[in-house]
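Project outcomes to date are best conveyed with an example. Our students and postdoctoral researchers have been running inverse folding experiments weekly, and each run begins with a structure described purely in tokens. The record below, which covers 150 residues, was selected by the lab manager from last quarter's runs and is presented without edits.
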């Protein structure tokens, strides 16, 4: 598998302008509070009955189906950690073209502790209204159906 490629704000904005798919792996709540326009939400973590965050059992199935046929998809979260984990999971399916948005939506830190500016540091717009078919609930229904299985 090829090494994971991190992208910065400049490359992100260029790729988005060119029509690249942006997969936001933050929670449904984080996505609803604000996201990159055009983003698709498939959370890496979901809340269980007690409200605790647990691994999303449908993440790999839904994300793989959503990204099928899309080259160099951008995988992003809040600060770069969950997106890196999501890339590792998706890489197990044979994907070698994943782009990790290192700064994430809110900004992160590199391995040495230096700040990496996130999407909110750009002058680009933030959306609180997802496009039709881009929410996790809609993607889950479309890709898994009401039975919850493909």
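After processing, the design step wrote out the following sequence:
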């Amino acid at each position: 598998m090829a090494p994971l490629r991190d992208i910065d704000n400049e490359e992100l904005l260029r790729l988005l302008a060119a029509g690249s798919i942006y997969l936001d792996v933050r929670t449904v709540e984080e996505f609803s509070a604000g996201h990159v326009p055009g983003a698709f939400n498939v959370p890496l973590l979901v809340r269980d009955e007690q409200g605790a965050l647990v691994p999303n059992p449908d993440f790999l199935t839904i994300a793989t189906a959503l990204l099928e046929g899309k080259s160099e998809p951008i995988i992003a979260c809040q600060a770069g950690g969950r997106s890196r984990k999501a890339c590792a999971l998706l890489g197990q399916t044979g994907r070698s073209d994943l782009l990790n948005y290192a700064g994430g939506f809110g900004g992160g830190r590199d391995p040495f502790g230096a700040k990496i500016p996130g999407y909110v540091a750009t002058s680009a717009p933030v959306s609180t209204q997802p496009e039709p078919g881009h929410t996790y609930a809609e993607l889950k229904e479309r890709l898994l159906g009401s039975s919850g299985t493909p």
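The chain has a mean pLDDT of 94. Strands lie at 5-7, 22-24, 40-41, 45-47, 53-55, 74-76, 99-101, 108-109, 115-116. The training component of this project remains on track.
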